Amino acid sequence: MKRQIILYDTTLRDGTQGEQIALSAEDKLRIAKKLDEFGISYVEGGWPGSNPRDVRFFKMARRATFQTARITAFGSTRRPGLRPEMDKNLKALLETEVQTVAIFGKSWDLHASKILGISMDENISMIEDSVAYLRKRDRELIYDAEHFFDGYKRNPEYALKTLKAAENGGAHVIVLCDTNGGTFPYEISKIIEEVKEQVPVPLGIHAHNDSGLALANTLEAAREGATMVQGTINGYGERCGNTDLISAIGNLQLKMGYACISREAVKRLTELSRFVSEVANVPPENQRPFVGKSAFAHKGGVHVSAILKDPAAYEHIAPELVGNRRRVLVSDLSGKSNIAYKTREMGIKVGGNGFNNEKIVQKIKELEDQGYQFDAAEGSLELLIKKVTGQFEEPFKLESFRVTIEKDRSGPSTAHATIKISVGEDQEITAAEGDGPVNALDNALRKALTKFFPQIDEMGLVDFKVRVIGAGKGTAAKVRVQIESRDSSEIWSTIGVSENVIEASWQALVDSVQYKLSRVLNGK
Length: 524
Hints:
Blueprint lengths: L5 E4 L15 H14 L3 E5 L5 H12 L6 E7 L11 H8 L4 E7 L2 H7 L4 H16 L4 E7 L1 H7 L1 H14 L3 E6 L6 H14 L4 E5 L6 H10 L4 E4 L13 H11 L7 H4 L2 H12 L16 E2 L2 H9 L17 E2 L7 H11 L8 H15 L8 H11 L8 E10 L7 E10 L2 E9 L2 H14 L9 E10 L8 E9 L4 E8 L2 H21 L3
Helix pairs in contact: 1-2, 1-12, 5-7, 6-7, 8-9, 9-10, 13-14, 14-15, 16-18, 17-18
């Protein structure tokens, strides 16, 4: 039978201590519900004794229904010189009315003597008093031994005394924290092995990533018998972040054979990662293990040739296990295998002799030498392949366009675009305004085309990026423009390159519209 690992998520508290991470009480509730649906056992909602936002979250959570997750309130041990019942922090924990609370205390004698300025005995009393006080009020108690590994390495006898104080107070779980993130996996293993001989209470691990070892330390702790794993979704957290629960689950369940969540939930790991990223308003990291957009992306021709025969040649797991997908990229590093894979994926027939594949590869290499980048613009790539193989007929042609910018001293600048296009034998001339030249061109093009292709109204621009290529030429340098567009069913990217930013934008804009129309005209 697989050993169970209990997952404890602290995204809503420790995760929000990271730079650029700000969650409202409403955001926290949305994430908490998602984590509950996913099957996380404990969701730490925040520190009610520290700010009104967390107090409000716990009031909202009280009215919500959770099927799996135990909403947990976080706080510290009592203050020096106070009885537990007089401590505002402990009172705030009880006022949340949650059944599970987590409190932290000092395990490192340095923190007791220098940071808090108290005696070693007073620190021990603070831990035991606080745990016992909350336990007597029928709370499930998780004790976080802050800075435990640093404390143990410098004064093992005292660090163990702090754990025994939590045990004597009645803690259900004692979590060993690598708060500074400086401990190595071999140290984690040795120390936990020694602690287990002295402390019979179930142990957990809470690791920070300051040395890039949070995940490795967490896995090593689990291997040594820790039953609770704490972390945050996507590794958000203070300084360099915390253990990424996404990667922890992927490794613990798929690689090490532990039971963390249901098999079906594992298939939603990618969805969970992106959901939290979206709510936190932090762009997803493409290179994130297991769930990143690039996690199963293959660019080199040799790699692609191999995965066509057996994906295990260059993939440590099947991407579908975590809800991700395999991607084959096309660039100047590509070979015929990349094109064969992409054309099959896109449903484009290129013939069986490989001649068209060679032509496509050659054309891509020529264009990428000029600054194009097709691995980031698959909409333009699909159009290029169709054009090279004679499978694309332009639905419209540009006859001319003109863009002007007007600025007076009192108001913002405005842009005006006039455009003339041909659709078959028909010509259309339209004009439109916009917030900028590209926006004005987009508005004018849509206005001209809607008469012929009303489906254009379904699409919209999601993102617009400009990058300078060869910056040594200053304002005369080439620029690469990438446009991301979407309709009700998909998102696609297109690209343009020119010394003129308006021309590059026009190329990307036309590709975006033509990609949409190619789908419409082919009934997709």
